[in-house]
UniProtKB/TrEMBL annotation:
Signal peptide: none annotated. It holds the Pfam family PMD. Residues 1-112 form the Aminotransferase-like plant mobile domain. It comes from the Eukaryota. Coiled coil: none annotated. This is Aminotransferase-like plant mobile domain-containing protein. GO terms for biological process: meristem maintenance.
Length: 125
């Protein structure tokens, strides 16, 4: 058994038909774009003895720490932020995992903020 494109569309709500999700990825200002998407900016890396493990995004543990459970009395804005964090985590851990195994890539931040564009998130063969 394997996961199909239709499964991904049904589970995530992400369309599989529309404009191809392509283009340039901007690295500059990614912490601020994280804050724009989920309302929390990642803390600056301060450990001088180790290289920053987050050059391409935030650690999955950071998402888990900040968005583990949405409060019952959350405002619509907070619910939207938790949903965005969930989708970001789902995209980077399940649908499009990379070689790091521990990082949610910032490359999906801009497309996740713009729901008016009808992106095709998954390429059909």
């Amino acid at each position: 058994m394997s996961i199909t494109l239709e499964d991904i569309a049904m589970i995530s709500g992400l369309p599989i038909e529309g404009r191809a999700l392509t283009g340039k990825v901007r690295a500059a200002g990614w912490p601020q774009r994280v804050a724009a998407l989920v309302g929390v900016e990642p803390e600056p890396w301060t450990d001088e003895t180790r290289k920053d493990p987050r050059p391409s995004g935030v650690l999955f543990s950071w998402i888990q720490r900040h968005f583990h459970r949405c409060p019952r009395d959350a405002s619509p804005l907070v619910v939207e932020r938790f949903a965005s964090a969930y989708l970001w985590n789902l995209l980077t851990q399940v649908v499009f995992p990379d070689g790091t195994g521990d990082t949610a890539s910032w490359m999906f931040l801009d497309p996740l903020r713009d729901w008016d564009v009808k992106w095709s998130w998954v390429r059909r063969h």
